[in-house]
Amino acid sequence: MSHPSGNPGVTVPAAEGTPSPGDETTADATQTAENTCPDCGGTGTLQGKPCPGCEGTGTVTVTVGDA
Known about the structure:
Layout (H helix, E strand, L loop, with lengths): L31 E5 L8 E2 L2 E2 L8 E5 L4
Antiparallel strand pairs: 1-4, 2-3
C-alpha cells in the first residue's frame, strides 16, 4: 500500500505489473479507464501497420480523477 502525496490518511493499493505501450498506468491500478489511443485515433493502425502507441488495440489505459 502507498500513501498519495499530501494525503497520509488514505492508502491506495500499489499497481502491479508494467503498463502496456501508450498506457499511463497498469490496468489494475485504481482510478483508471480505457481511452482511445491518441496516436491512431482508435483505429489500431498507422500507415497500414499496427500502431506502436497501443500495439494495435486502439485503446490505452489512462488515470482518471485525482489519482
